[in-house]
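TA notes, week 10

Several of you asked for a full example with nothing omitted. So below is the full record: structure tokens for the whole chain, then the designed sequence directly under it. When grading your own attempts, check the secondary structure regions first.
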């Protein structure tokens, strides 16, 4: 299970709705006491009846590969699903975890917190080579990803609070 910082809003009732005003989060994060939360999970495929579609659009004329090529038993996958010991999930909801990546690494580097830092730095800030970037919350998970992204995109210097100075080794 992924326990992301933004989940505090889901558990805060109406106060959480105020903090996420204008966000799509509240629509699926409005948890009520006693309900099973729905959020990111990572699990092993126990059984698969999924077929993998070939082609850009889903039409009856497309070739369907055998289920064994879709999601195989034992593969590690992620999905947005209820926090339960067992789940039945549609193949369209699943995302394979790259081989050799642990669930902890997948959640921290491939999921929402990391995507927020990466996409915010790359697509919202749109840094140019030589820019100086400032990241508030730079010592947190999202901020660290944003700092690394700015550096990789050519920022001359990245500053943040709490104080972080990002150094990228020339060989990385």
């Amino acid at each position: 299970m992924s326990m992301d910082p933004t989940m505090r809003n889901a558990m805060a009732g109406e106060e959480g709705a105020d903090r996420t005003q204008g966000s799509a989060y509240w629509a699926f994060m409005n948890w009520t006491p006693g309900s099973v939360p729905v959020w990111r999970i990572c699990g092993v495929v126990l059984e698969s009846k999924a077929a993998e579609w070939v082609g850009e659009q889903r039409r009856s004329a497309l070739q369907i590969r055998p289920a064994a090529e879709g999601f195989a038993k034992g593969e590690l996958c992620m999905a947005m699903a209820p926090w339960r010991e067992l789940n039945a999930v549609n193949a369209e909801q699943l995302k394979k975890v790259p081989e050799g990546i642990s669930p902890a690494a997948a959640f921290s580097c491939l999921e929402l917190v990391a995507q927020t830092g990466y996409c915010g730095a790359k697509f919202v800030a749109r840094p140019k080579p030589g820019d100086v970037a400032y990241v508030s919350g730079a010592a947190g998970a999202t901020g660290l990803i944003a700092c690394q992204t700015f550096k990789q995109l050519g920022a001359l210097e990245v500053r943040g609070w709490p104080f972080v100075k990002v150094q990228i080794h020339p060989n990385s």
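Helices lie at 7-10, 14-19, 25-29, 103-110, 112-125, 141-152. Use that as a sanity check on your answer.
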